[in-house]
Structures are given as C-alpha cells and as structure tokens.
Inverse folding.
C-alpha cells in the first residue's frame, strides 16, 4: 500500500483535528486518503511498536461513506473523518474482537457497541482498530510488564524500544505518540491513562467516574473505572471528551451523576491565559524519588507562577490506609464485574466466569509465561458485594480520598487545581522482575473517582515526563483551562524519531 498522492501537500505528522477538518473542507484530501495513509503508517512502524492489536477491515469502507456524506451536504459530527484507535477492552459490534489482550477471548465478538464506540461513530470518527494493552488492564499478576499481553506481545515505547510504554492503556498512548492515529481512547482504574500518556509524551484525560459511560467496557472496578481520551494536544483531547461525555446510560448507573455536569463542548474552557489568578496546589509526596523529575517539577512550578498562578505546597492528601481499602474494593468489584461480563459470552465459550479464566490460564502455554495470576486468585476468593468487608472498605476509601482527601485540601487552601509530576521516565522492559515504578501521583484522583489530566512537562535524557492536574469531582472545565494555558506557554511535546524495524513478538 502506497501513500495517496493527494496527501503530498498535507503533512499528517502531528496533525490536529482542526487542521484535518480544514483540509477536508478545502478539498485538499478525503477521509479515504487519510485513513489509507494511517494504514500505511501502521504497516510501516507498528512491527516495532506492537501498539495495534487488530485493524478494522471495514475502515476504508467507513471512510468512503463519510466522504459521500460530506459530498451530499449531510450534517457532520465533530469528529468527522478523524481516525481513532480503541483500547482492546472496549466493545465494538463489527468484525473486530474485544479481548483485553487475553488468548481466552481471542474469538470474542461483542453483540453490541460499547457506549463509547457508539458515540464515536455518531460523531463521525473512523475506528481504525484496537490497541494492545497490559493484559486485563494490568490486573492479573504481581510482576506484570506494562504493555504485554498474551495476544499482542510487548508494546514498546516509541522514544526507546527497550523501555516500557507504561500501562495499561499502552498501545493507545504509543499509537497516538507515533502518529498511527489522531486520537485514541484508553481506560483507567489507577494510572492507566495518565501514566502511559506521561511516558509517551502525550495528553491523557482521566475524567470523573460517571462522566463517560463504561457500558461495554471489560471491568475492573465499578467505583474507579473510566474511559478517557488520549491525544497529542489538550484541544484534541477536549474535543474528544465533549463527544464521549454525558448522557444518562441505563447500562451504567454511575452516569446518573453527570446529568448536570457534562458539557457538549469542552473547547470553550481552553483559555491561554487560564492560569492567571489561579491557586494551584503543589503535591509534594511524589518528590525526592528522582532528581530529574524533581528538576522538571521545580521548573513547572516557576512556569505556573510566571503565568499568573499562585502555588501552594500540599504535603499530604489522604492516609496510607486508603490504598489498602482500594485494593480490597477492587478485588471484590473485579470478580463481580468480570463474572457479569463473561456471562454474556456464548454458552460453549471456554470461559464464562473468573474461575474458568483462572483454569484457562493454567492450561495455556503462553498466558503465564512471564508472570502469574495472583490477583485473579485473590479476587476469586472474595464472597460478593454484600460482604461487610467490601462495604466498609468502600466507605472508608471514599471518605478518605473525597471529603477527607481532595475536597478537604482544596477547601482549606482555596485551590483551583492540584499539580504533581505524573510519574518517572519510562523504565527498561523487564519480564523477569516486572515493572519498576519509581513514583506516581495518580492515586488521589483514581481512588476518589475525580478527574486528572496529564500533559508533557519535559524530558529526562530524551524520555518524556508528564505533569498532572487533578481536582474535585466534575472539575474538568477548570483542569482543562489550566492545562491548556500551561501547554500553550511551554510547548514541551517533542515527537519521537521513528525508524522502520521489527522486533520479536514476546
């Protein structure tokens, strides 16, 4: 497949949604040409990156239908002709599968779209395919390697193929960073959008739980799970957020809370002067673990102040017990949610519940090759969501991270947002010892179910590091305002230098 000749005067490298749609309006290109060009790029570069698990065989047909729609003068959606990749734990009702990276679901085709996929299609996006991920969204074993799955092998960081892409939305982040799509959608329970966004030099939004429906997404925790957009710019991420946000979904009761909070268009929140007069908390807990990250964060604080913000140190947000309660909550909710999801598989499927899945992995010659399934076993041992242990852990965690956590801190210090380094630079991939997490700041927003945005803050020895802004429930407009102002003033993102090569499939 060769690059379409009509694209000679249109650079897709780092193109934005606004630029792409301007090219459609001007007639400089078509959706078919753009989709074909992205398919060429995936074929050229993804042998090394292993970010794309499956391509949509109907992508060019969908693109042609979108071109015909424009030609006919029909109304067009906000993502018309925008190529998007979805993490492979998000249901699509088409010729693609939904596997969570597991060989146990290799033949599973969902009977209906997830709400996320349905909204993307309605907005005019072209779903190019599904991305590799840390298997089961990195919720299976104690020594996992981010970006590895039994079906997809090891996703690799485009800035250095020997280094981790973080996870679990590994392939989504890598594909966006390497310009194999314009947008991607990931999911997060704790860090799975913001960490891969950080180490791959892109923007990731982990919204308030309930802002985006989880219907049709393979679950971990009904309390903490959410989908979210991943893009190269804050504006593109905001456009995607507007498409995915809002609407009470009878398949996801958490969406009831979004009724008076969701916006149809978050780009109105993007203000280049949005930091002026803001009070931003500077979360201290992630500091002192990596000198390079500390230096970047010190410069970021200076930049925030130069842009008109007042920064206030925040030493602690919640007690250490909150993490223990979160683990308990996730074990109980994972078994309940997984059993519900797998029960929808055909009666002759090899797995219909978590217990079946544990047996499948024990018998498979690849699934347990690099790490075990200790988390699965612990979840299977739980006794149901009516257990007092679960109810107590859930109430304690939410109180500690909400009313006595983020809300308490922000009220006491009159904060508009809290800032912190998202994490450390990417570590070397290690299938023997697993991931080497040095630091992170995702937990306060993850355990409370509150929003978090990560965007590029700079690099250490060429490896990207992100800056996170998080805050109260439903504060996406405020967080987007400060994130956009910081992005526009600093411009830290540098695209990776890609080469055409291939690596093994492990």
């Amino acid at each position: 497949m060769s690059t379409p000749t009509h694209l000679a005067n249109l650079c897709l490298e780092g193109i934005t949604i606004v630029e792409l749609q301007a090219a459609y309006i001007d007639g400089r290109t078509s959706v078919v040409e753009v989709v074909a060009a992205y398919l060429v790029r995936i074929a050229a570069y993804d042998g090394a990156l292993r970010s794309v698990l499956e391509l949509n065989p109907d992508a060019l047909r969908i693109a042609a239908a979108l071109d015909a729609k424009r030609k006919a003068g029909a109304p067009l959606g906000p993502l018309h002709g925008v190529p998007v990749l979805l993490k492979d734990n998000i249901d699509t009702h088409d010729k693609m599968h939904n596997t969570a990276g597991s060989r146990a679901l290799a033949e599973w085709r969902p009977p209906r779209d997830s709400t996320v996929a349905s909204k993307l299609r309605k907005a005019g996006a072209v779903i190019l395919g599904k991305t590799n991920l840390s298997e089961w969204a990195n919720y299976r074993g104690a020594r996992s390697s981010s970006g590895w799955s039994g079906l997809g092998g090891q996703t690799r960081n485009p800035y250095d193929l020997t280094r981790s892409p973080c996870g679990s939305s590994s392939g989504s982040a890598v594909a966006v960073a390497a310009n194999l799509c314009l947008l991607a959608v990931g999911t997060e329970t704790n860090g799975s959008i913001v960490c891969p966004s950080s180490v791959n030099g892109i923007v990731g939004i982990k919204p308030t739980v309930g802002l985006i429906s989880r219907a049709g997404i393979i679950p971990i925790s009904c309390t903490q799970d959410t989908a979210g957009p991943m893009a190269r710019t804050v504006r593109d991420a905001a456009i995607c957020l507007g498409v995915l946000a809002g609407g009470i979904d009878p398949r996801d009761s958490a969406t009831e809370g979004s009724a008076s909070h969701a916006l149809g268009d978050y780009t109105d929140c993007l203000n280049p002067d949005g930091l002026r007069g803001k009070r931003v908390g500077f979360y201290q807990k992630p500091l002192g673990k990596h000198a390079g990250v500390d230096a970047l964060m010190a410069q970021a604080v200076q930049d925030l102040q130069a842009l008109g913000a007042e920064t206030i140190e925040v030493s602690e947000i919640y007690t250490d017990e909150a993490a223990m309660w979160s683990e308990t909550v996730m074990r109980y909710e994972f078994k309940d949610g997984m059993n519900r999801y797998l029960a929808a598989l055909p009666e002759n499927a090899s797995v219909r519940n978590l217990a079946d899945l544990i047996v499948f992995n024990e018998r498979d010659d690849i699934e347990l090759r690099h790490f075990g399934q200790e988390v699965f076993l612990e979840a299977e041992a739980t006794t149901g969501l009516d257990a007092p242990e679960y109810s107590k852990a859930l109430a304690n965690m939410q109180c500690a991270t909400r009313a006595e956590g983020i809300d308490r801190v922000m009220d006491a210090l009159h904060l508009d947002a809290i800032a912190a380094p998202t994490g450390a630079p990417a570590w070397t991939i290690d299938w023997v010892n697993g991931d080497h997490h040095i630091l992170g700041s995702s937990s306060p927003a993850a355990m409370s179910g509150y929003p978090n945005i990560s965007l590029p803050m700079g690099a250490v020895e060429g490896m990207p590091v992100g800056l996170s802004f998080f805050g109260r429930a439903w504060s996406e407009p405020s967080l987007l305002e400060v994130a956009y102002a910081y992005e526009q003033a600093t411009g830290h993102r540098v695209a990776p230098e890609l080469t055409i090569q291939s690596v093994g499939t492990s």
Remarks:
- The chain has a mean pLDDT of 96.
- The chain has one domain: 5-490.
- The CA atoms of residues 273 and 485 lie 6 Å apart.
